[in-house]
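B., you asked whether I could sanity-check this one before it goes into the benchmark set. Here's the sequence:
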Amino acid sequence: MPSPARPSTQSDPIGVFDSGVGGLTILREIRGALPCEDLVYVADAGHLPYGDKPLDFVRGRALAITEFLVGLGAKAIVVACNTATAAAIDSLRERYAIPFIGVEPAVKPAAAASRSGAIGVLATNATLKSARYAALVDRFAQGTRVLEQPCAGLADHIERGGLDDAATEELVRGFVAPLLAAGADTIVLGCTHYPLIAHIVRKVAGPQIAVVENGTAVARELARQLTAHECQRSEGIGAQTFWASGRIGEMEQVLPRLWQAHARVMPLPHTAGGLAGASSSV
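And here's what the prediction gave me:
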């Protein structure tokens, strides 16, 4: 894929990508931890949701987006999607010399925190079926019952702006109820979209149930990697640029609610690599 023109306002940015707006939960933690860094966010909403796609397809999208970000000069890339991490991060690390930080369901802290010895994992079907997830459970959840709940349609519903409505609460209630009935006292939000509705999960589950996210850990690992590679910026105020494939109108409605009031997204032509895009700087 030809490298796109590099934005004049950014130098050696950190790339972050997800299938849609869910990765903004990770981006927010990164911005808080690394205020001097320029950030480039790609939402592959034209191919949302990743969770019901074959892993080979997700791997291809991850490669195309990575090529795009490398063309922009990214010095590190955060795969801010559990499904894409499971499908592609190992192959991306083999192909490129820059650091890659992925996201995985927070099984380890959930298992350590559980009093009942049972944790529930809300995630996409692709994540739950991946070898990477299986290895995670095998490594960190020995002696703990891991109750897995695929959440078909939930990420797509959130992407359309369902952050507080009754339909979202109904979906969440249907996914959470079996976990509670089986004795889970800790629930893992195993998709980066789900922290956007963590307040609904907590409402449905009740105050006695712990709800675990992992955005802070991702930002901390990114900072560690930048320090190790001696490329962390310590001066200036970082900018952020948003790119997106497809569903531009929907993202225009949701992005200001999730980032800041004047954040916007504008469509761009298709590139040679098939990555329809949009760009916005705030």
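One thing to flag: The chain has eleven helices and eleven strands. Otherwise nothing jumped out at me.
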